[in-house]
Amino acid sequence: MLVNWKLCLAILTCNVVFMSASYTMLVPFLPMYLTLELGVTAASVNLWSGIVFSSTFLVSAIMAPIWGRMADTRGKRMMALRASLLLSISYFLGGIVTSPLQLTFMRMFQGFAAGLWPMELAIMTLYAPPQKLGISLGIMQGGLTAGGIVGPLFGGFLAEAFGMRMSFFLAAGALFLNFLVLLFFIKEPPVKEEKDSPAAATEGEKVNLWKIPVIRLMLVASALVQVVILIVQPILTTYITQLAGNIDNLVFISGLIFSLGGFSSAVTAPLWGRFGQHHGFFRALRLSLILAGIFFLLQALPDTLYAFAASQFAVGLFFSGIFPSINAILAENTSASLKGRVFGLLFSAQQVGAMTGPLLGGLIATIFGMKYVFLAAGLILFIISATVRKKGLSH
Which domains, from first to last, does the chain contain? Predict the structure, then answer.
């Protein structure tokens, strides 16, 4: 018997919170892990950090479309179970590595294992009634963001109290719990073809999703939005420190301001989902892109810490509408038998954006200065919005 869609939403959202928190309670501290636990010198820690970070993105970008295709033939639930179990193993291995090379191999294995988020999105799009799709995806996006806020706070506490290796073991336990919940409480949703979908496949037909204009646009937009996130993130704490000057509790205040956008995003993501449901997801996407772009531009202006903190909070209010809208547009424009493939491609596109963003941000900050990174982020969002508006009018 199938799970009620509301129960499915509650279970998957909890899973997403665990997944996101497990990731973010470790990733920000990997440079510290390299120096304190694995013996990397201060002179080479930046090089090793870059290798360790990028290795996961590279492998997951290659594997995501493959896992997505398998999800449509073997089942979305089976691929979610695969990802949960293998991610759990990868975190456990992270807790027992003894060299930076071993940590790099562990992160590559993590990239191979990745794909839990797109599979849980695919499952939810099949369980949710069409009139509840927007709010469901918005709630899941809010859960993803909430986990991203809780993770670093919890990770910092664990590292101080028990050492960083304990964080890896706890993350492994959380992902294994996800595996058990999926195994015992979530059933594979039935596949019903939606014949009016642009990507509805007839029997024996092979659909090239990249050739469908609306899907191609959403995949490119998603990659560019991920570039915007990763173009800004690496310089945020440095920029905050520059604005703050010599004040007490600088690390705490930097972390608090850094998380303001996450707090506002977690609250407003479901509201954007509801707005898209009632007014159209193209309209919600266009509006959130424009407003987020405006506040990214404004972030380049403040010379005071308080003004920057306010703009960081405002960016989160509007940025949170982007991914739920993209996810909903993709879900509405693909048949049930292709959901795994399309969300696998989405994850792959985001990984490409995640690899590109830090390089572009570092280049702009080095050549022009940090303020221009925020200007570039706003400009990219405006360009995406203009393209989406053109497509939305013809859609």
Answer: 1-188 (1.20.1250.20), 207-395 (1.20.1250.20)
